[in-house]
């Protein structure tokens, strides 16, 4: 009864019913009424008659009652049913009849003679005319207590003891309105409403206001006449403030420009010196590649829980895993089970003996791998996890070969009957038993061998096999071999493991077996492949930047025709190179500054920030250089004064965009997500440095270059003069196209409504698609296209049958010695249903929702059973001479049973609890005591030696299979919900009772629980900061700030819609790109908007046409074309991550930004842009009068034809550029 006692005693009713079956059989005074001796034989040696077969009749009530009371009893350490061991077949296939048949057969290794059980309520008459009658005795159901002072079996061990439990809520059904998706319906209504009102307005405007017969010019003249008689008293307060703000900004930038132009060497020298000093910090540059540090904030819940787990137990192990299938895995073979069943069963081809031999040789080859680190040989035993150390030093290898203790002899063993007529057992029979009872120390086949691995612990079949149907492991299509390696908090202690893993990877890459298809991965594989991917794409990135730099140099010239030789000014190589060097210096200064501060960088910084700064910087460079190129120097004006005047025009616009972006990025660093925070900090500082270098170095170099050109010297080689002295004054092609053609076309009355309808329609469509965006990151995208890890990921999804382990951790402070404290966590007899283990068990009933696949390992109940007296021998023994612990297999005569006080309510007394717990945790499971906790619970219980109390503990189970990001996110959410319910259930009874779940992937997927909120928060504060800066720098112009924000929101919505259509999920990488998109969108919007606000044209349409004509070409040639030529190169990257999150998103950013900045925004401003500032018109009139008195008639004539006033106080966008 030793084995039944160990597995059934946690349910007293079951165990008592089972014991009664044999007690009545052997001790009942009337057992002749239901027992019949069927066959006897005479022992030749003793001449005694021995019974060989007995008949035993049992009533339906007793037999079925006993079965029903035992069918649910579990073995916590093995996560299996007790009947998996005692029925000869899986518990799900076990019933009353075949259970009794197996228990009565001598093949189980425990029954001394065969017992034929007859189940029924009718008598049975035998050939010897003896009639026996069924055994009718009372059965105690598992839902009832065995005695008045005991408790019924727990819900986990008895389904009839469970209270009805409300299932978890199903995922909400899609939101619909009138059977249409709710978001589609609402956005459709919004668009139709817009179409109705805007269409009505456009039609009425063209019919009633705009003369369709061609009299628009008279309407414009009537509008302009309203401003002919403006007086000082007509000006509003905000108009005066706005005009004053423009005056202050222009004067300040004009004076600064003149200063830099007059002292170029000093300005350039100081700027470069400061930049180089900051760049020196790069020597301290530290790149964070640890995914935990990259994606999980130190203050996040998952990170804190991981740190708690690592500090109280051991860090989660390093794993080296192989998924092995048979080449052409469509074969199968038939195996005949031994008596008494004898039926044929079908096994998949991966279980063929020869294939198992090859598998064993592969495992041995890997186990014998060695590596060299610091001239020291490193073997697997030096780094592997050894759960039974120091008693046993075998490595933990989760493999089906562990069922044979990695022994070729056991694998090949065949047990025949006495006559050598048929096989009683072979490796497949042993395998069938072990997958049902992996923690068994003695199978019930003729093998009578242990199922425990060579390392001393159980090997669960759902871990070692893959691709099976249900829980029929014979149908498995793959072997899963996992080598468990110790992990350490100190990375320096992991270097030996990393060295061995490198040799493992080399070996697997070179391993060749035509019968095997192997997908493999090591703990370091993902990090290695990420690094390889980064290095492999360096060339792609460099080529992309070189093309953009080359374009910048080429485009800064003024092309007046399609012919290269028709440049008014040849390509300004000097200005292009200086602009590029400024970008590089600003990035290096940002890197150096934060390296000094001690803020580590990420690979995203190196890949993304230069792209961002190039986008921002190039736009400003083009605007500054092209404005200067198009400007005509006034009579008597020096080059320095002309440069200063140019800076006065464009400086405020440069300040507006740079300050908006920099502040937006700085505020974006308020997020807790490390990758986004670090990017925002580096980007903000890089943009700020870029602006500072532009208004210092670039201005000084512009002045020097102007002097060079004035003296007809060669570009880059200024020591020599050129003979080419003709200087045409024609406008550039892009400028001419934008001014004379594109702006006129866009402002046509039939074009503007089409633009508004198309953009608003696409915006509504995109907004409707945003809720459909997937959250997460497919880990396959992070790998290069030729990575071996991709095969591993594919095999995981195809064959993996169980998810990652999950530990429900009870924090330090809980009292396990009290009954109340034990009730909070236990799962055995007398435990409440809402205990920790009870709630986890309930969660397994809805594994498809909760993602909890198995009941948890319960060290507390196994400890109770281990400590409980009654075993033969008892599990708890000690040497009465030394006081040391004795294992059950120890034959030392001085070993005696522990002096354990009588159990109360099936629990040990308080004084015994801590006294014997350390012995339980060091006891190895053996054939005489399978409950030893060393293998299963050696690391699960923290014992504080200073106080001899229990600290933190954990209860381990497994998640169900997770294949997508949604699966992982749901697993995390439901695990936390279960832990929260457990904590709340016993919070009132124990104020120190706190439970949290921990699994190795939580730190990576926690970000997705709040990614939507983080996205809204980051984008909102970025947009809010842009609104604030725009509002202030445009002279407290609320109207213009709103226009900028609306356009940026349209760009973001369209980009999010593109993400859905192009299968780009929302994650931290996408969020970084979205934050960057906000910054780049400012470049597309703010320059146009500011040009519109400073224009003194009298109608919105003329001002929109004017701003587009003079800023559109710089925006198009600067940021749009520059980025497009570089982005196209990224499409050829080997990295899937680059192709998806950089090429696709960057392309979307540039295309949507350009489309909205050059099409939507001018049209929007032409309809609802801010009204003209009358203070600026009044000032224009005053300046015109002054210019008429100071300039020649020719100059006066030219001044009157300007579209925007050229004066000393306001930017001039109306001069003939």
Automatic annotation (TrEMBL):
GO terms for cellular component: endomembrane system; plasma membrane. Residues 1188-1202 have a biased composition (Low complexity). It comes from the Eukaryota. It is found in: Endomembrane system. It comes from Lottia gigantea (Giant owl limpet). InterPro entries: HMGCR/SNAP/NPC1-like_SSD, NPC1-like, NPC1_MLD, NPC1_N, SSD. Belongs to the patched family. Residues 1183-1202 are annotated as: Disordered. One of its GO terms (biological process) is cholesterol homeostasis. The chain crosses the membrane at residues 185-208, 265-285, 538-556, 577-597, 603-625, 646-667, 679-704, 750-770, 1016-1034, 1041-1062, 1068-1088, 1108-1133, 1145-1169. This is SSD domain-containing protein. It catalyses: cholesterol(in) = cholesterol(out). Keywords: Cholesterol metabolism, Disulfide bond, Glycoprotein, Lipid metabolism, Lipid transport, Membrane, Signal, Steroid metabolism, Sterol metabolism, Transmembrane, Transmembrane helix, Transport. It is a multi-pass membrane protein.
């Amino acid at each position: 009864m030793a084995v039944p006692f160990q597995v059934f005693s946690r349910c007293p009713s079951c165990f008592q019913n089972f014991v009664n079956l044999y007690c009545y059989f052997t001790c009942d005074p009337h057992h002749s009424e239901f027992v019949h001796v069927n066959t006897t034989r005479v022992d030749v040696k003793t001449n005694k008659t021995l019974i060989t077969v007995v008949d035993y009749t049992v009533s339906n009530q007793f037999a079925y009652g006993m079965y029903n009371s035992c069918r649910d009893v579990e073995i916590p350490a093995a996560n299996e049913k007790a009947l998996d061991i005692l029925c000869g077949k899986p518990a799900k296939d076990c019933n009353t009849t075949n259970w009794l048949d197996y228990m009565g057969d001598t093949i189980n290794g425990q029954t001394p003679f065969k017992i034929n059980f007859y189940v029924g309520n009718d008598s049975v008459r035998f050939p010897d005319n003896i009639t026996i009658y069924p055994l009718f005795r009372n059965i105690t159901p598992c839902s009832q207590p065995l005695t008045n002072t005991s408790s019924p079996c727990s819900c986990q061990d008895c389904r009839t003891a469970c209270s009805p439990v409300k299932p978890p809520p199903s995922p909400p059904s899609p939101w619909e309105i009138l059977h249409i998706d709710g978001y589609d319906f609402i956005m459709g209504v919004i668009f139709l409403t817009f179409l109705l009102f805007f269409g009505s307005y456009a039609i009425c405007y063209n019919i009633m206001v705009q003369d369709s017969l061609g009299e628009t010019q008279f309407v414009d003249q009537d509008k302009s006449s309203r401003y002919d008689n403006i007086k000082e008293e007509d000006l509003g307060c905000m108009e005066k403030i706005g005009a004053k703000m423009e005056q202050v900004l222009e004067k300040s930038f004009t004076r600064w420009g003149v200063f830099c132009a007059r002292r170029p060497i000093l300005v350039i020298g100081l700027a470069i010196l400061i930049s180089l000093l900051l760049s020196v910090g790069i020597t301290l540059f530290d790149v964070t590649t640890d995914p935990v540090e990259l994606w999980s904030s130190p203050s996040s819940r998952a990170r804190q829980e991981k740190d708690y787990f690592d500090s109280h137990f051991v860090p989660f192990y390093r794993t080296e895993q192989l998924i092995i299938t048979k080449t052409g895995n469509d074969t199968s073979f038939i195996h005949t089970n031994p008596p008494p069943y004898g039926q044929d069963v079908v096994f998949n081809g991966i279980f063929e003996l020869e294939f198992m031999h090859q598998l064993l040789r592969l495992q041995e080859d890997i186990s014998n791998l060695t590596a060299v680190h610091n001239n020291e040989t490193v073997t697997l035993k030096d780094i592997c996890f050894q759960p039974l150390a120091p008693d046993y030093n075998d490595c933990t290898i989760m493999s089906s070969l562990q069922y044979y203790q990695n022994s070729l002899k056991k694998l090949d063993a065949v047990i025949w009957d006495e006559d050598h007529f048929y096989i009683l057992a072979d490796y497949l029979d042993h395998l069938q038993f072990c997958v049902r009872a992996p923690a068994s120390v003695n199978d019930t086949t003729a093998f009578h061998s242990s199922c425990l691995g060579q390392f001393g612990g159980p090997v669960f079949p759902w871990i070692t096999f893959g691709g099976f149907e249900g829980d029929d492991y014979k149908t498995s299509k793959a072997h899963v071999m996992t080598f468990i390696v110790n992990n350490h908090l100190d990375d320096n202690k992991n270097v030996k493991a990393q060295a061995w893993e490198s040799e493992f990877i080399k070996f697997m890459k070179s391993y060749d077996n035509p019968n095997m298809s192997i997908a493999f991965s090591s703990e370091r594989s993902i990090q290695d492949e990420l690094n390889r991917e980064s290095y492999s794409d360096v060339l792609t990135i460099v080529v992309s930047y070189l093309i953009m730099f080359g374009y910048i140099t080429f485009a800064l010239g003024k092309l007046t025709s399609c012919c290269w030789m028709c440049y008014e000014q040849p390509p300004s190589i000097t200005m292009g190179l200086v602009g590029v060097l400024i970008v590089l210096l600003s990035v290096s200064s940002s890197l150096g500054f934060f390296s000094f501060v001690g803020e580590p960088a990420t690979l995203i910084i190196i890949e993304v920030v230069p792209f961002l700064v190039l986008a921002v910087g190039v736009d400003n460079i083009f605007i500054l250089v092209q404005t200067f190129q198009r400007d005509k120097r006034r009579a008597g004006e020096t080059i320095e004064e002309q440069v200063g005047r140019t800076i006065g025009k464009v400086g405020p616009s440069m300040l507006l965009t740079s300050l908006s972006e920099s502040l937006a990025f700085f505020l974006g660093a308020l997020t807790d997500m490390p990758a986004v925070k670090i990017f925002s900090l580096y980007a903000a500082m890089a943009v700020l440095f870029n602006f500072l270098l532009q208004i210092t170095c670039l201005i000084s170099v512009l002045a020097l270059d102007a002097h060079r050109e004035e003296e007809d010297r060669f570009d880059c080689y200024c020591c020599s003069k050129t003979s080419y002295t003709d200087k045409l004054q024609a406008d550039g092609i892009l400028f001419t196209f934008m001014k004379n053609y594109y702006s006129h076309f866009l402002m046509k009355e039939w074009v503007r409504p089409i633009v508004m309808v198309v953009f608003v329609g696409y915006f509504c469509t995109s907004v409707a698609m945003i809720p459909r965006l997937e959250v997460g990151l497919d880990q396959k995208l992070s790998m290069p296209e030729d990575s071996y890890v991709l095969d591993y990921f594919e095999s995981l999804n195809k064959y993996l049958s169980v998810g990652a382990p999950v530990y429900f951790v009870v924090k330090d402070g809980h009292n396990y010695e009290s009954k109340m404290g034990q009730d909070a966590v236990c799962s055995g007899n007398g435990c409440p249903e809402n205990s920790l283990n009870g709630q986890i068990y309930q969660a397994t009933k809805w594994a498809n929702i909760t993602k909890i696949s198995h009941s948890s390992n319960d060290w507390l109940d196994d400890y109770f059973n281990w400590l409980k007296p009654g075993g033969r021998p008892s599990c708890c023994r000690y040497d009465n001479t030394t006081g040391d612990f004795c294992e059950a297999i120890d034959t030392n005569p001085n070993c005696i049973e522990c002096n354990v006080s009588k159990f109360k309510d099936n629990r040990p007394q308080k004084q015994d609890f801590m006294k014997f717990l350390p012995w339980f945790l060091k006891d190895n499971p053996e054939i005489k005591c399978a409950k030893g906790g060393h293998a299963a619970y050696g690391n699960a219980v923290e014992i504080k030696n200073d106080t001899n109390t229990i600290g933190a503990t954990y209860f381990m189970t497994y998640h169900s299979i997770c294949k997508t990001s949604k699966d992982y996110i749901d697993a995390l959410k439901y695990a936390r919900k279960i832990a929260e319910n457990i904590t709340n259930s016993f919070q009132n009874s124990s104020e120190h009772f706190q439970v949290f779940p921990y699994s190795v992937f939580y730190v990576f997927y926690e970000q997705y629980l709040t990614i939507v909120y983080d996205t809204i928060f980051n984008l909102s504060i970025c947009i809010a900061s842009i609104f604030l800066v725009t509002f202030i720098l445009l002279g407290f112009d609320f109207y213009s700030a709103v226009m900028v924000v609306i356009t940026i929101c349209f760009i973001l919505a369209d980009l999010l819609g593109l993400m859905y259509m192009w299968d780009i999920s929302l994650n931290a990488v996408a969020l970084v790109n979205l934050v960057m998109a906000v910054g780049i969108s400012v470049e597309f919007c703010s320059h146009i908007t500011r040009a519109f606000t400073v224009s003194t044209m009298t109608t919105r349409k003329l001002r929109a046409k004017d701003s587009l004509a003079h800023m559109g070409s710089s925006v198009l040639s600067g940021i749009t074309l520059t980025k497009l030529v570089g982005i196209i190169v990224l499409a050829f990257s080997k990295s899937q991550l680059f192709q998806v999150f950089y090429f696709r998103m960057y392309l979307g950013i540039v295309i949507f930004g350009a489309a909205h900045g050059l099409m939507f925004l001018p049209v929007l401003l032409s309809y609802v842009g801010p009204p003209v500032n009358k203070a600026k018109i009044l000032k224009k009139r005053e300046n015109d009068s002054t210019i008429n008195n100071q300039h020649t008639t020719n100059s006066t004539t030219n001044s009157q034809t300007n579209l925007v006033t050229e004066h000393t106080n306001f930017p001039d966008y109306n001069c003939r550029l």
